[in-house]
Design brief:
Layout: H1 2-8, H2 13-17, E1 31-35, H3 48-68, E2 74-78
Parallel strand pairs: 1-2
């Protein structure tokens, strides 16, 4: 995440305040969207490393939002929750409780 931010954000205040150029095709180009997880603030048992990485994304996104807001940038953090997906087993296929 840091490597991408360093490559995308201009390196000086003068460059930040003049970005994007007036002819930029995307008018909302000053929005940074990071994808975390609900596990960033609501950890689950046996998922410590995953939860820690998502908490780091949450903290970095919130801090970065404060740092770049004066230059017209906004940082948005999407935190999807658990739900049925292609990696979850159907209810009938899950192991029975002992």
């Amino acid at each position: 995440m840091l490597i991408v931010l360093h490559s995308l954000l201009p390196s000086t205040e003068a460059n930040i305040s003049s970005w994007p150029p007036s002819d930029h095709p995307i008018p909302w180009a000053k929005v940074i969207i990071n994808v975390g997880s609900v596990l960033g603030f609501l950890p689950a048992p046996y998922m410590g490393l995953h939860c820690a990485s998502k908490h780091a994304i949450e903290g970095m996104s919130e801090t970065l939002d404060h740092e770049v807001r004066n230059f017209g940038f906004r940082v948005v953090l999407a935190e999807p929750t658990f739900g049925p997906g292609r990696y979850t087993l159907p209810q009938a296929a899950q192991p029975a409780a002992a």
